[in-house]
Amino acid sequence: MDLRLLLPRLMPRAIAWAEALAAEVASEGHALDASGLSDAMAVGVRKAEDIRVLMVDRLPLPPDYELREAALHAGLLGPTMTGLTLGHSILICHGHLCRRLLSHECRHVFQYEQAGSIAAFLPRYLQSIVEVGYWHSPFEQDARNHELA
Ligand SMILES: [Zn+2]
């Protein structure tokens, strides 16, 4: 599976899936408490009050077969992933909520804010994943560098 070749074709579906999931979290998730808001602002988020967090048993996978296989192949959304950020919407797996993970995901919120939207950020993020891998993605490195302990 060559994700670099697949990505341009999958991108519109990836964005549509991400936007729909973000909307779901926005309506069902909870706002950050005072310490969460303060941490979000500390990692650069401008609209910390817009952040919603939804606790889930596992990160949802796209129903679209091809999209799902690509996400798993890229190392995204697999069983070891415990957090996912889409715009101001954050999903965290039960049992994994901690300051380090939340601040990491909040830094991704900052990255979305800098890009302006899910449609603007996701292509850059996914491009970096297929080019250098999840661990070496500059967006992941930046998020790791802003984790609060
Ligand atoms: Zn991350």
Report on the structure:
There is one protein chain. 56% of the residues lie in helices and 11% in strands. With 149 residues, it is α+β, with helices and mostly antiparallel strands. The chain has one domain (3-145). A 4-stranded mixed β-sheet has the order 1-2-4-3, with helices on both faces. The chain is globular. The structure holds zinc ion (ZN). Zinc ion (ZN) is lined by residues 104, 108, 140, 143.
The figure for the number of domains is 1
What is the approximate shape?
globular
Q: Would you count the extended β strands for me?
A: 4
Query: Unreliable runs, pLDDT <50, ≥5 residues?
Result: none
The small molecules bound here are: zinc ion
The residue-averaged pLDDT reads: 96
Tally of individual helices: 6
Which structural class should the secondary elements be placed in?
alpha+beta
Range of helix content = 55-70%
List the helices and strands and how they pair.
Elements: H1 3-28, E1 30-31, H2 34-42, E2 52-56, H3 65-73, E3 83-86, E4 89-93, H4 99-115, H5 118-132, H6 138-145
Parallel strand pairs: 2-4
Antiparallel strand pairs: 1-2, 3-4
Helix pairs in contact: 1-3, 1-5, 4-5, 4-6
The structure holds zinc ion.
Describe, in short, the structure shown.
With 149 residues, the chain is of the alpha+beta class. The chain has six helices and four strands.
